[in-house]
Amino acid sequence: MSTVIEMQGLRKEFTVRVRAGRLRRAKRTVAAVDGVDLAVPRGELLGYIGPNGAGKSTTLKMLTGILTPTAGTVRVCGLVPVPQRTRLARRIGVVFGQRSLLWWDLPLRDSFDLLRHIYRVPAAGHAARLRRCRSLLELDGLLDTPVRQLSLGQRMRGEITAALLHGPEVLFLDEPTIGLDVVSKQAVRGFLAELGAAGETTVVLTTHDLNDIEKLCRRLVVIDNGRVVHDGSLAQLHQRYGSTRQVVVDLDEPPAEPVTVPGARLVSTGSDGRRLTYALAGAEAGELVARLAGAGALRDLTVLEPAIEDVVTRLYTDR
Amino acid sequence: MASVLTPYRHLLRGQVRAQTAYRASFVVNLVSNVWATVADVLTVLVLFRVTTSLAGFSLAEALVMVGLSACGFALADLAAGNIERLRHYVRTGLLDALLVRPLRALPQLLLMDIGLQRLSRVGVGAAVLVAALVAAPVEWTPARLALAVLAPLAGALFFSAIFVAGATVAFWWVESGELANSLTYGGKDLTAYPMTIYGPAFRRVFGFGLGFAFVGYYPALALLGRPDPLGLPGWVGWVSPAVAAPAVGAAALLWRVGIRHYRSTGS
User: Fold this and answer.
1) Taking the model in full, what pTM does it have?
2) Residue A269 belongs to what H/E stretch?
3) CA angle, residues A84, A90, A93, in degrees to nearest 5
4) C-beta of residue A222 within 8 angstroms of C-beta of residue A312
5) What is the C-alpha to C-alpha distance for residues A47 and A214, in angstroms, rounded to an integer?
6) What value does the mean pLDDT of chain A take?
7) pLDDT, tens digit, 9 for 90 and up, residues A8-51
8) % helix, strand, coil for chain A, step of 5
9) For residue A213, what pLDDT is reported?
10) Angle between helices B59-80 and B177-191 (to 10 degrees)
11) How far is CA B34 from the centre of its chain?
């Protein structure tokens, strides 16, 4: 698999002026992105997450040629983004959750048509991609509505379509589900999953909404204070930060003697002694349940998957 | 070449459609813009009610300068006047949207904010110039005719360069509007009058240093076939449209440096 995105020691500093006295203002340099190394192979669906101000958007803006890096190298599709910005723009698609790339006063149809001329793509390919987006994102009823009259969810579906009409190799999405209702989020996620499954387009997604990541991304990069603090799968993240599946059982009677299984830890016991919560660290849930059932009558049973929020919260507070 | 420009042409088409979408307000703007140029002409007419000559120039001759200046400025204002919105784009990060398209940022900005309502002002400026040239004692030659067309166009380029250069300051200081306005709107008034009415120091800095003298005054001298009371040789008027070249060059350079300084916003 070839590498589509490559960053080495990527760094972006901003100078901020802080009040240092009644009139004096001191200059301070802040690194928004502080030495990021990352390689993304073709066809990957990468989740780029972090708290506010972690450097997600800044990284994305350096990848798309909007911002000039302070130091380090970056290549996207083999191009250096800032000096080769217009060439790169033909090969990438960008969606900003916070701002529109469409024409505010024009119907979606006209925006799409303009984009075809701006990107100078052959009409046939453009029409085919539009057809696919129209059915997957249910755009048919919206094409003649001016963008300013679309709801946020409708507009976002338009934005994603607009970003894909020139057949980009890489799609960058900066918080595409921000502010969307559940149904629209679902539509966007479903579409991106489909796109990822096709494997032709590399997708880089920054988000706050960890459900986006859980549903979509096999690879997860967590960034904090401008540095990568985790790069791997979701399972690896759980493993590394000790988040575990939990088994909660309700028994008819408190067990006569404590039930122990190697690799499972009793986390809590309910006040009446009949509800037991175990954390699984290596043991199989089935094994534990079998032992518990042997110890007394089992009334109810729940297996809790670890919540990604908990892990990430721990990650942020542990720093 | 044509294919390079095609996307921009379509961008313009979209912009025209978007701006005319609000039909009534477009017409109101179109009409109200007429007054901007009419006011410039009225100022000169009022001046000539108290005098028969302004620094040795008759009314018709003075109006040639007003016409050259108004034509050039109105065209520049149409094409580049709204670039002052750059500071809004910089502050809100809207420039990001333009930078992810496979087109150059500056032409996109110019096209997106093209002031079509100012079309009427160009019309009035051209009418004033034509009327003044008819009324003034001009000995027409093909060269003078060429100059009469070229000078307002060069003036438009010159003023556009100032609009762009002034707006570019927004990359460093986000709130920078007044500095740019003093050069553009102030410069327009400056070019509408004979250079001889200004003091030597002012003339040296703004007229010759920044080049405003070559927008209205010197082309007018060449058109009217008059010697320069300030003593510059007669060919200066003929080459004065060239002043647009260094102005455009400087603005382009400033833009290139400025856009590297673009910081976008936090999200």
Assistant:
1) 0.79
2) strand A264-269
3) 110
4) yes
5) 9
6) 85
7) 999 998 887 777 777 777 888 888 899 999 999 998 999 998 87
8) 35, 30, 35
9) 80
10) 150
11) 16
Q: Which tens digit of pLDDT belongs to each residue from B258-267?
A: 888 887 766 5
- Verify whether the Cβ–Cβ distance A118 to B7 is below 8 Å: yes
Q: CA of A98: which chain B residue's CA is closest? A: B267
Q: Does position A211 have pLDDT exceeding 80, yes or no?
A: no
| Closest residue, chain A, to B17 (C-alpha) | A106
**pLDDT over 90, % of chain A:** 27
Count how many pairs of residues, chain A against chain B, have C-beta atoms within 8 Å: 85
Q: Which residues in chain B are closer than 8 Å to A165, comparing Cβ atoms?
A: none
Among B6, B95, B102, the residue with its CB nearest the CB of A89 is B102
Tell whether A207 is within 8 A of chain B (Cβ). no
| Host H or E run for residue A45 | strand A45-49
- Cα separation, B74 vs B37, in Å, equals 8
**Res A221 pLDDT > 80:** yes
Is the Cβ of A38 closer than 8 Å to some Cβ of chain B? no
Q: Are strands A45-49 and A298-304 parallel, antiparallel or unpaired?
A: unpaired
Beta carbons within 8 Å of B172's beta carbon, 6+ residues apart: B258, B261
pLDDT at residue B223, rounded to an integer: 94
Instruction: Classify residue A316 by burial, with Cβ atoms within 10 Å: 0-12, 13-18, 19+.
Output: middle
Q: Spell out the domain ranges in chain B.
A: 2-261
* Chain-chain contact of A96 with B18 (C-beta, under 8 angstroms): no
Amino acid (one-letter) located at B134? V
**Looking at the DSSP assignment, which residues form a beta bridge with residue A223?**
A228
d(CA B238, CA B232): 12
Residues of chain B with pLDDT under 70: 1-2, 174-177, 265-267
Q: Which residues of A touch B101 (CB under 8 A)?
A: 89, 101, 118-119
d(CA A60, CA A221): 13
Residue B113 · residue B41 · CB < 8 Å? no
pLDDT digits (tens, 9 = 90+) for A93-143: 999 887 888 888 889 999 999 999 999 889 999 999 999 888 888 888 889
Q: Find where tokens 């901003």 sit.
A: A14
- The partner residue sitting opposite A86, judged by closest CB among B19, B103, B260, is B103
Structure-token pair, residue B8: 């921009």
| Contact yes or no for B11 and A118 at CB 8 A | yes
pLDDT at B266: 60
From the list A221, A219, A171, A178, the residue with the least C-alpha distance to A194 is A171
Q: Among A67-76, A80-89, A276-285, which is the least confidently predicted range?
A: A276-285
Q: Do A87 and B99 touch (CB under 8 A)?
A: no
